[in-house]
Structures are given as C-alpha cells and as structure tokens.
Amino acid sequence: MGILEFTIRLVTGMLLGSAIGIERHWRQKSAGLRTNTLVSLGATAFILLSIKIGGDATGRIASYIVSGIGFLGAGVIMKDGLNVQGLNTAATIWCSAAVGALSGMGLQLEAAVVTATVMLTHIILRPIGLQLNRFTFVKSHGDPTDYLFTIKCTAEVENHIRVLLMQMLGNDEKLLLKSLSSDDVDQNVVITAVIKTAVPQDSLIERTASRLTIEEKVHKVSWEIIGTQSEL
C-alpha cells in the first residue's frame, strides 16, 4: 500500500467519523465531534497498521479494536440510582469504530453507508423514541405533578446550565420537560423550567437541584410544586 492510498483511507475514516460526531455534538452529547472523529480515525489507523504488518494481524487487531472500544464506551455510561444514561452515546462510539475499521480496509463505500445509517438512526428514531416515552408517561399510574424549577446564574454559564438541565431531565422517562426559558434579572440570568411527572418525583428533582448547586457561577437553585416551594 502506497502513502497515497494510506492517506485516502485515513482521511476517509476521519471525515466519516466527524460526520457522526457533528450530529452528536449538535445534540450536546458527552461524546461529540472530536470524540467520534478520533475513535474512527484511531480504528482506521490500527487497521492500516495491521495491513502493513500482514499475516493474520488484521483479524487480531480488528478484534482488539472491538474490545478496546468497549472500555471507552463504558467511560461515558453513568448510573444514577436505577437509571442508566449514556448507552446511546457508547453505542455510537462503537459504530464510529466500525466506520473507521471499514475505511481502513479500503471499503469506503460501505463505511459511508454505515455512517449514513448511524446518522439516520439518530435523526429518525429519536423523535419516535420521544413519542413512545410520552405514551408510556401518559399510561403511568398515579397523580401527575407539575414542578417549577428555577436557577439563577451568570450569563456566561447560561447555555451550559440549560444544556446540563436538559441532559439531566430530558433523558429520564419519568419526567416530561414542558418548557424552558431564560430571563435577564439584575445582571444575572434566571432559567425557568416547567417539569411534569406522572407521579411525584420529589427525590429525583431534589437530586437534580443538588447537582446544579455545585456548578460554578450558579447563585441559586429552587423548585416548587405549584405553590409549595423547596429551596437550596
């Protein structure tokens, strides 16, 4: 394999990995543009190395890539009580490695098909999954409860706090984030979220509030259930 073919395969793996990463970055996931690009690029490089070595190295290194990505994926999975978050991100990293491996083998068209399929899976199946969550939410037993969540912070961390709040609340099927808004108050920003739950989730809301209070430049976090207020 010449240096030109080596470069073409490596750049293909990088570009296809970045395509997946752009979609993940847009969704504000923990593994975004750089992570998916580097995973795909690294897998491509290892496959190219195995081809240079020759023999049965290709099969062995490919298997090592699969197992190695498992450890990387485990790093983005978080457990909060009975809830597990990050499985989708870990699976995407795994797919990025597959794209890189295909690119390294010179199967650029196949790698492009896998990339497109991964992106379509996120774009098409995500709204379907949200609708299914809402259907499950409506069918839950118990009295629905509305929570008003208020966060006072500086303007420079507003976007970070909004994204963090959406990640903490938007991925939990027990909660339905009805609205999220921001207002400028006394040179600070007040972020207000209205959250609906099928059954009371005071402990979950309290854990979310406690987590946000430790964020830098967050001055105040409070939540209330329609007229009854609990403040940190």
Automatic annotation (TrEMBL):
<feature type="domain" description="MgtC/SapB/SrpB/YhiD N-terminal">
    <location>
        <begin position="10"/>
        <end position="128"/>
    </location>
</feature>
<comment type="function">
    <text>Virulence factor required for growth in low Mg(2+) medium and for intramacrophage survival. May be involved in regulating membrane potential by activating Na(+)/K(+)-ATPase.</text>
</comment>
<dbReference type="InterPro" id="IPR049177">
    <property type="entry name" value="MgtC_SapB_SrpB_YhiD_N"/>
</dbReference>
<dbReference type="Pfam" id="PF02308">
    <property type="entry name" value="MgtC"/>
</dbReference>
<keyword id="KW-0812">Transmembrane</keyword>
<keyword id="KW-0472">Membrane</keyword>
<protein>
    <recommendedName>
        <fullName>Protein MgtC</fullName>
    </recommendedName>
</protein>
<keyword id="KW-1133">Transmembrane helix</keyword>
<dbReference type="GO" id="GO:0005886">
    <property type="term" value="C:plasma membrane"/>
</dbReference>
<dbReference type="InterPro" id="IPR048640">
    <property type="entry name" value="MgtC-like_C"/>
</dbReference>
<keyword id="KW-1003">Cell membrane</keyword>
<dbReference type="Pfam" id="PF21770">
    <property type="entry name" value="MgtC_SapB_C"/>
</dbReference>
<comment type="similarity">
    <text>Belongs to the MgtC/SapB family.</text>
</comment>
<feature type="domain" description="MgtC-like C-terminal">
    <location>
        <begin position="147"/>
        <end position="223"/>
    </location>
</feature>
<dbReference type="InterPro" id="IPR003416">
    <property type="entry name" value="MgtC/SapB/SrpB/YhiD_fam"/>
</dbReference>
